[in-house]
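Tutorial handout. Part one gives the primary structure; part two gives the three-dimensional structure as tokens.
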Amino acid sequence: MEADVDAVSIQTLDLLEDRLRRVEFAITGGISQSEHRGEGSVVERLQALETSLSTLATKSPTVSEIMHLRRTLSPSYRWGPYGLSML
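Part two.
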């Protein structure tokens, strides 16, 4: 069972890294070169994802505004598969 949880965690991190790369490409037209993608512990990979997202937000006012809206929106709003919706 624990091996399944570890495998799902690794797959989820892989998907998050891929999604961030796609967003970065859509916003900037390129992707940053990181030799260490997919390496390290779960905590290290999450920290690297947070750092990459913060770096992208400093480069892109659009990403920065989306992150700001996400932090400040009322709890009656939530992000769903089709964007922002009310509960």
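Part three, for discussion. The two ends are 34 Å apart (CA to CA). The helical segments are 2-28, 42-59, 61-72.
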